[in-house]
Amino acid sequence: MAFTVISQTRSRLGEVPVWSVQDQCVWWVDVLSATLHRYVPATGEQTDFKVPMRRLGCIALRARGGLVLGTEQGLFGFDPASGATEFLTHPEPGKATHRLNDGRCDRRGQFWVGSMNEQAFVPEGTLFRVDGDLSVTTMLSDIIVPNSIAFSPDDRTLYFADTRAYAISAFDFDIAEGRISNRRVFAQTRAPGRPDGSCVDAGGFLWNALYAGGCLVRYAPDGRVDRVVELPVTHPTCCAFGGDGLGTLFVTSASEPAMTSNDPGPHGGQLIAIDVGVRGLPEPVFAG
Length: 288
Fold this sequence. Notes:
Layout lengths: L2 E3 L8 E7 L4 E6 L4 E6 L4 E6 L5 E7 L4 E5 L2 E6 L4 E6 L8 E8 L5 E7 L7 E6 L5 E8 L2 E6 L5 E6 L4 E8 L4 E10 L5 E7 L5 E6 L3 E5 L5 E6 L5 E7 L5 E6 L18 E3 L10 E2 L2
């Protein structure tokens, strides 16, 4: 499948692309260098923002403008115009070995974000729900690497993966109450490919980046593999729909693979864009 290379630089660990419908741009991060990237398709301009943290695990759009950053120091607001950061809250303060990893907002404006022990890679991570008033609720524990947070179009299913468990889970989701229940295995992967970041298209199919698997996998709502899209990177990390009519799939990747291979592929660490023939959904924004 034809692809377009978007980024001018290679990220060490590119992650979490997010499309802003309002600003008509795609944001993504380099986790390991704590750098935020923005690309505007209309002008072809890429802007890079180095933030004053050690790690930048995830981002979300913010209702009041700007972004929310998930870091090793907690959650921060970010103003692209000034480059200023504002501390919001820390779901688990006092854990020097931990940082926030994957995160995504639901359509009620609640931010779901997972933590991990990035030094030992042991099951000490937690999935949190952060509400608009910045209150924090623990939703799931005993996680090694939290990833793949996504929501079905009808807001009745939450998807989540512990990457090192080779499985994507599905939960019944009550968006009004912010609750999850009835965890079950949605999809299982095989070594070396591990489930990383995901997004859901307008048809309710889940797209997952298979880290160390060199491809995207599209899953039907019942967990059936619908399509596999091979990529020019060995370690894709996440994907998100954006562009005109939300018809472009943006894919991030790593240039410093953490597992199985030292070869990142010809475009490892770069943001690429693919037309996969389907459209996505607008990215929800954080209410806080």
